[in-house]
Each structure stands twice: as structure tokens, then as C-alpha cells.
Amino acid sequence: MIRKLLLGSLGLLVLVGALLTAAWMSLRAEPAPQGRLLATSEAERYLLAAARAGDTEVVTGLIKAGTPVEARDSRGFSPLILAAYHGHTETVRALLAAGADACAGDNRGNTALMGAAFKGYADIVGMLNQQPCAVDQTNRFGQTALMFASLFGRKEVVEQLRQKGASPEVRDASGRSAQDWAATQDPSAPVAPAPAPAETSASAR
């Protein structure tokens, strides 16, 4: 009886030792290579960062190496949207030449054209207007590039968009048109200006 107990205890110790050894060896083992998936993910992140910074050389190099030009971040921003929003004209040109989709929006439906109109980058708006996208394309809130340009008083961009056929009558989900958005930027001062010097001298006579 005692012998059986001893043999059972010894077997249990051997089993536990084997398990501990296996666990220790697994901790020491080199991590498995991630392969192409990790490399592609890293390349996409580099592409997005380069587009945001306007590093056209890195952007073109990564695309030539096979990085998808339509890479997206968690908010749905593509390299083209980032480059357009940050005003990097040459980077936008390179991305369009590489086949970037100018009509694609982010998670909220905002396109590269909307971003450029929002910031007032007329040269980029001109390039994007040459793409086969609807000039009155809307985001999830029904807003157009013309509305963004009107809101911030981007007069040159507004004129470009109107020449392309953008309608000031289109209304967003709140019922406001581009004209309504433009009216929210009333330039009149809250305090009446002082009378002109000529008027002051005339009234004193």
C-alpha cells in the first residue's frame, strides 16, 4: 500500500515537472514571425503618416512597393483625405496619379474635396474637381463641399465649386443650404463703428 502511494506521488511529481519544463521552454522561445500581414499593416501606417506630413517621396515609394493606396485609419481617413486636408498639393497629385479614389469618404462620409474646401486650398480643390465625382456629393449629414467652403468664407473655392456645377440650393439634414451656412459668418461688428473723420469734421461745422 505504501509502495503504491509512493509510486503515485512520484508519478505526479514527474508530471508536474514536465508541465513546468514545457511552460518554461515556451516562454524562452522566439516569437513566431508575423509574416506579410504585419509588414502590410506597418506599411499602411507609414503611408498614412507620410500623406499627413506631405512626404511625397515616401508616399510614392510605399505605393510602388505595393502598399494599398486606399489604406485607412480607425476614422476612415485615407492618404488622399489626409493630404488634401493638410494642404499637400504634390502629395495629392501623386496619390491621384497612383489611382486614389477621390470620391471615397471617411467614416462620416467626408471626402478629400470636402476637406480641401473646408481649409480653403483652391489648388487642391481644382485638382479634385477634375475627378469623376459628384460636386454635390454629401456626407452622412447631407453636407457638401460648397457648404464647408461657404461656412468659412472661402470665396475662391466657392467660385470654383459653383463653376463646376455645385448648387447653393442643396440642403443638409438640418435643412440648411450653402447660403444659410454662409449667413452664419456675418462679418458685421457687434458694436457700431466710429464715424469717419470727414463726417465728424462736417458735423462740427
Automatic annotation (TrEMBL):
<dbReference type="Pfam" id="PF00023">
    <property type="entry name" value="Ank"/>
</dbReference>
<protein>
    <submittedName>
        <fullName>Ankyrin repeat domain-containing protein</fullName>
    </submittedName>
</protein>
<feature type="repeat" description="ANK">
    <location>
        <begin position="75"/>
        <end position="107"/>
    </location>
</feature>
<feature type="region of interest" description="Disordered">
    <location>
        <begin position="162"/>
        <end position="205"/>
    </location>
</feature>
<dbReference type="InterPro" id="IPR036770">
    <property type="entry name" value="Ankyrin_rpt-contain_sf"/>
</dbReference>
<feature type="repeat" description="ANK">
    <location>
        <begin position="141"/>
        <end position="173"/>
    </location>
</feature>
<dbReference type="InterPro" id="IPR002110">
    <property type="entry name" value="Ankyrin_rpt"/>
</dbReference>
<keyword id="KW-0040">ANK repeat</keyword>
<dbReference type="Pfam" id="PF12796">
    <property type="entry name" value="Ank_2"/>
</dbReference>
<keyword id="KW-0677">Repeat</keyword>
